[in-house]
Amino acid sequence: MFYTPEDGHALPHDPLNALVAPRPIAWISTLSPDGVANLAPYSYFNLLAPNPPQVMFSSHDPKTNGQEKDTITNVRNTGVFCVNLVEYSQRFNMQVTAQDLPAETDEAALAGLTTVPCETIPCPRLPDAPAALECRLTQLVPLKGQQNTMAVGEVLGIHLREDLLTAGRFDHKKFSALARLGYKDFTRVRDVFTLPPSKD
Predict the structure, then answer these.
(1) Which residues form the Flavin reductase like domain (predicted)?
(2) CATH says 16-188 is which class?
């Protein structure tokens, strides 16, 4: 089948979000200027560059009637955010934080999660996350479409859980990273294999 986004797909569910998959999930923690913590998952997320290290996530929420999400508002106002990785065992906690809740709600507390201050930025992080990236905002880019915004940040500090290091390497098999497939479907990293370098 072929379709154009403009004309539609005529399927019961939009397949687009399921095509680029699996997508890693950034569990973004922020703090409002008034000191209210916020935590929300974003699967439009990835590493952009290694030196200096830079990451991006983008927010899309047409249900907000022109109001941007609390995460973007906090990043805009404070210039910082923290990316917490999500492991399989935290999947239900993550779902709690994905709800549309009032701005004064502390999602981490609601989901029964502990937070601690970051080291390099004024922002909370999840100490139980497999890893956390402390980021300073470098660009906030409005994207085409309703309530589409991309945040780009430079990574200033990196936390790694000590129990996830094996022979000096970050071991994905030890925590089963959670990833988004689209629709209501997710997956986790369980099988890891190595390929030899390709030959010219």
Answers:
(1) 18-177
(2) mainly beta
Would the pTM count as exceeding 0.90?
yes
- 83: alpha, beta or left? (left if phi > 0; alpha if psi -120 to 50): beta
Residue pLDDT, tens place only, 6-46: 999 999 998 998 999 999 999 999 999 999 999 999 999 99
* Amino acid identity at 187: T
Peptide bond into 22 cis (omega under 30): yes
Q: With contact defined as beta carbons under 8 Å apart, do 192 and 172 qualify?
A: yes
Cβ–Cβ under 8 Å, residues 77 and 32: yes
- Specify the amino acid at residue 143: L
Which tens digits make up the pLDDT trace of 45-93?
A: 999 999 999 999 999 876 656 678 999 999 999 999 999 999 999 999 9
Domain ranges (residues) in the chain: 16-188
